[in-house]
Structures are given as structure tokens and as C-alpha cells.
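#lab-general

N.A. 3:47 PM
ok so I finally got the sequence cleaned up, no stray characters, all 76 residues accounted for. can someone with queue access submit it? mine expired

B.Y. 3:52 PM
send it over

N.A. 3:53 PM
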Amino acid sequence: MQRALAGRIVALLVLVALPAVAGAHGGERLDSYGCHKNRGAGGYHCHKGQFAGKSFMSKQEMLKERARRKFGPGKP
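B.Y. 4:20 PM
back already:
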């Protein structure tokens, strides 16, 4: 009985702690756009700012998208 209760408590603690561990990046600093290079998987992604939650192949791709949104299609 006590063993089953202990197992349930451990399972509950794992479920509560897992999202916090999964969301960690290891302390990489964000640049002025709120983004950083993803060293493990490659690419570039954003946590804050205009592109929060978005991923790009590179910082240059993000800057192109930023310029497109700022100036509209067909402009620099």
C-alpha cells in the first residue's frame, strides 16, 4: 500500500517538473530581437518580441521577414 502511494507521488512530481525541464535552454542569451541561435538543432528562434514562438533557418531569414513586414512586398 505504501509502495503504491510512493509510486503515485513520484509520478506526480515527474509530471509537474517535466514541463519546466523541457522548456529550459541552458541559459543562452537572447539578442536585441528576443531570439537566439539554436546550437543543438540548428536554426534561429525567438522567445520575445515580434517573432516570439517562431523559428527560422537563420538570423538573416528573420531579418528578411522583418523587413518584408515593415516595408511590404517588393520593397527592401
